[in-house]
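Late entry, written up from scratch paper. The run itself happened at the end of the previous shift, but nothing got recorded in the book at the time, so transcribing now.
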Amino acid sequence: MIKREKVIDTYALNVNDILVDISIVSTGEDPVPVYKISITNISEVTKIILEKIRDEFVSEATSKLTEEETVFNIQEQFRENILKLLAKYFPNADRKTMDMLINYILQQNIGLGNIDILLKDTNLEEVVINNSVEPVWVYHRKYGWLRTNVLVPSESRIRHYSTIIGRDVGKEITLLTPLMDAHLKTGDRVNATLTPISSKGNTITIRKFAVKPWTVTDFIKDKTISYEGAALLWMAVQNELSVIISGGTASGKTSMLNVLSNFFPSNQRIISIEDTRELMLPNALHWVPLETSLPNPEGKGGVEMLDLIVNSLRMRPDRIIVGEIRRKKEAEVLFEAMHTGHSVYGTLHANNVRETINRLVNPPIDLPKQLIPAISLIAVQHINRRSGKRRTLQIAEVTPAGDPRVLMQLNPVRDSLDILNEPVTILETLALYTGFSKSEIYADMQSKIAVLRWLVARNITDVNKIGLIMSKYYLNKPFMKPKGV
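Output as recorded:
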């Protein structure tokens, strides 16, 4: 019986002049839709000829891959050799066609094959190889998890992919070290495992680096946050109040951190600290990104998050951004920084505001509760794994006793961020440092909402344009607490 396909979406990609049609289809029988790739400008006959060319050089290329060379270097070495072979089989092809065929051969035989095509699709957040029996899975921004028509032919090929990814960044994966965390040159994060650790086969999980960073305009347009919620966070950031972003895995914590960075003034020095670089701040900012480094196979040269946090305090920062707070020592140094006049913005794994406080005051972080009021706001991100929608679940202020007080909360029925309580501690703090009355603070929030509506109405989603607009806003409306307070 022939399966009847329903086309959900189609679009095209250009991957190094290789034209690829993407179609997302549902058969009605499969539990999830299928993500299909089809290369349109290379015929089946051409592919057969390319296989012959492949056989003439692949053994030499494979031997090269055992040496300590990066894939990029090897590809450059073989470019001329492949060009000579192509000239023999395709004497009438122009240079553009030759370049496209070279790219295809290199991609299929020295690169990551069709995985490279998936990595070029900006609609995908995750690319997952579970084994050589199942097709590759992808997580699509709009459609969630999808099964693809891409198969990796063997377990040895998956291991080969892991090896060449690791070699490019000085990592290795072997039976003695069957787990590997690495990243591609593009910034995509990679985790790989070997059997028997993963009992169904070798695995590779690639979390893609967002080429275009999320902005406050994107968040409001996608209903991730309301105008009022964004304005409240903007007011906190402008006035140098520290904010913690919490949430579950893939809930959008780092994306929210990137959105908060839209509101930084350009006349302050910002230090960001991450395990793998994900943040992309506006060009107008005075920003220094720092990244941890794992030790080499001999156990030397490692730089941990704590090392970078301590070092950042010697770099005269006005703002410190931390990718994720995990350990007690890191948290202690950060809270000490808050108490000495630095604004800190970081993420934490917790599902709601109460869990966020509990995580901070219990092991392994285990901070004294009297330190917690150094945080002014907690924003919790949430992902509905059935629909794939990401939303701001709660925004809460922290009381002087170190307890959370929810100001806004997601109403899942109406899909809206509802206002539950009027701020108390935040208003008192702003009044203390700015001298503004309650009505003046609310008027300032309304002016921020007007700016946000203006950004959304004009669909300004470029992070650098938003950075410039914020710089102009601050020139006209300086509403900052005195430096050093």
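The first helix runs from residue 44 to 65.
(Scratch paper discarded after transcription.)
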